Amino acid sequence: MKHAINFILNREAVSIRIEPHITLLEMLREVFDLTGAKEGCGAGECGACTVLVNGKPLNACLMLAVEADGTEVLTVEGLANGTELDVLQQSFIDHGALQCGYCTPGMIMSAKALLMENPTPTEKEVIEAISGNLCRCTGYKKIVEAVMAVSQKNGK
């Protein structure tokens, strides 16, 4: 039996009928074709599926889609303004803060949540904010540099 849910997805109101066992991640990827959030572990350990729900980072693999009813969900695709990338997305590019790119959307979303709450975090706060996002390629140095560059711009 499908359940009707209504929520805001990337700043647009949506209504959908969804099976109760479908995760938020499955719904985003398979129904809305928003493939930025990735399934890495399926157990909330890697952060590859991080999205913002009501402004807070959340592993989309751990939330049922029906629980999104009445919420605001923001994915990495929703950060850009048309063809203009969000300042954080651009900073990741400018600082080479990616290699294979699998973790990048989740990493960006965790960092975005931090910057929304605290526009000028310290390096220690950045490291703590992305601690739930695993990266097997970069060693995190350039990721932290990319976020700190945005923090420094925000402080000016």
Automatic annotation (TrEMBL):
<dbReference type="Pfam" id="PF00111">
    <property type="entry name" value="Fer2"/>
</dbReference>
<comment type="pathway">
    <text>Alkaloid degradation; nicotine degradation.</text>
</comment>
<dbReference type="Pfam" id="PF01799">
    <property type="entry name" value="Fer2_2"/>
</dbReference>
<keyword id="KW-0001">2Fe-2S</keyword>
<dbReference type="InterPro" id="IPR036010">
    <property type="entry name" value="2Fe-2S_ferredoxin-like_sf"/>
</dbReference>
<protein>
    <submittedName>
        <fullName>Nicotinate dehydrogenase small FeS subunit</fullName>
        <ecNumber>1.17.1.5</ecNumber>
    </submittedName>
</protein>
<keyword id="KW-0560">Oxidoreductase</keyword>
<dbReference type="GO" id="GO:0046872">
    <property type="term" value="F:metal ion binding"/>
</dbReference>
<dbReference type="InterPro" id="IPR036884">
    <property type="entry name" value="2Fe-2S-bd_dom_sf"/>
</dbReference>
<feature type="domain" description="2Fe-2S ferredoxin-type">
    <location>
        <begin position="3"/>
        <end position="79"/>
    </location>
</feature>
<dbReference type="InterPro" id="IPR006058">
    <property type="entry name" value="2Fe2S_fd_BS"/>
</dbReference>
<dbReference type="InterPro" id="IPR012675">
    <property type="entry name" value="Beta-grasp_dom_sf"/>
</dbReference>
<dbReference type="InterPro" id="IPR051452">
    <property type="entry name" value="Diverse_Oxidoreductases"/>
</dbReference>
<dbReference type="InterPro" id="IPR001041">
    <property type="entry name" value="2Fe-2S_ferredoxin-type"/>
</dbReference>
<dbReference type="InterPro" id="IPR002888">
    <property type="entry name" value="2Fe-2S-bd"/>
</dbReference>
<dbReference type="GO" id="GO:0050138">
    <property type="term" value="F:nicotinate dehydrogenase activity"/>
</dbReference>
<keyword id="KW-0408">Iron</keyword>
<keyword id="KW-0411">Iron-sulfur</keyword>
<keyword id="KW-0479">Metal-binding</keyword>
<dbReference type="GO" id="GO:0051537">
    <property type="term" value="F:2 iron, 2 sulfur cluster binding"/>
</dbReference>
